[in-house]
Amino acid sequence: MGTVYLRGRVWWIQYFQNGTPRRESSRSIVKSKARKLLAVREAQVIEGKLPELQTRKVTLEEIFQDLEIEYTNNGRVMERLKIAKKHILKFLGKDSLAKTLDGSKIQNYINDRVKNNISLPTVNRELNCLKRGLNLARRSGKVGNVPFIPKYKESAPRTGFIGREEYNRLFKEMPDYLKPALALAFFCGMRRGEILGLQWKDIDFMEGKITLPGMQTKNGEPRTIYLSQELKTLLEMEHAWRTLHYPNSPFVCAKHGKGIADFSCSWEKACKKAGLENLLFHDLRRSAVRNLVRSGVNERVAMAISGHKTRAVFDRYNIVSEDDLRQASKKLEGYLEETATKPLQDVESIN
């Protein structure tokens, strides 16, 4: 006997076909609609019409729609999914049937993206979204088999970062409306999406802290970031100016009182003027993590500030430079000189 159940706010149904459980979203928040859909599916199972009905008309657009619901229910960040959906549906066709998708079509998509100079890591992220959507459809009984979706080996992580002197040069060249974004990324390691979505209500100037709601962070967990005095002063000045000129503007990073969707052109111009042509905005996040660790902040605390959940990813951002290696050599040399004339037991007592 089938059942209806909630996933988030949406009602799902479960029924059985030849002893195999099938799950399907009713795409509705109304329980009665789910019950009606369940009755229809159970009747189709009895009549032997379910497999053809389930797989024949499921389009790639519907696959992504179901995936968006799943993302919403689990509080996942939607930005990367929307980008993947846009490019995949444009190439393969939103009305293309899921059951006709095979390895050759997926490879054609990959070849097209690479031909258009899209990096393999980006292609991998897009294919991950497609694979997740197809697996979700398979579990709900909408598709039978999921075609093989390759994953390409990615190059070593980028090692770009800047220090205080480069930051000062860049800050001088950056348009006034982007200076808060620059400072938030460099001092706090906030992600681009977190910065552009940040609102004045998220900042407590009395306490000197930012509270990011879970829906705004990549990992879906709320985060508290305390402001340095320099950053706090900058944001207070920006808030006072904005209150005077655009009192109804809610976003911290705004141009003419309106939220910013893209600032790539302004960013590239400022970087060029500052002599930092190859700098990416995301390099500021690497810089923040590196600076936190080298300033003596405990690594677990640094991870809480930057919002990294896994140590492996955090370590990729905690970049080791030639200067770090040079300093390590000097420390080793000093240690050996200090212990050169001491007995072994005295050396062990030092440690």
Class inferred from helices and paired strands: mainly alpha
Number of strands: 8
Shape: elongated
Strand residue percentage: 5-15%
Evaluate the radius of gyration: 26 Å
Descriptive notes:
With about 350 residues, this protein is mainly α. It folds into three domains: about 1-55, no CATH class; about 60-155, Tyrosine recombinase, N-terminal domain (DNA polymerase, domain 1), CATH 1.10.150; about 165-320, Orthogonal Bundle (hpI Integrase, Chain A), CATH 1.10.443.10. The protein is built from 16 helices and eight strands. The strands form three sheets. It has a three-stranded antiparallel sheet, sandwiched between helices. A three-stranded antiparallel sheet has the order 4-5-6, with no helix packed on it. Strands 7-8 form a two-stranded antiparallel sheet. A hairpin with a 2-residue loop joins strand 2 (about 10-15) and strand 3 (about 20-30). Helix 3 (about 60-75) packs across helix 6, helix 8 runs antiparallel to helix 10 (about 230-245) and helix 8 crosses helix 12 (about 285-295). The protein is elongated and about 80 Å long. It starts with a strand and ends with a helix. About 25% of the residues are buried. The mean pLDDT is about 80.
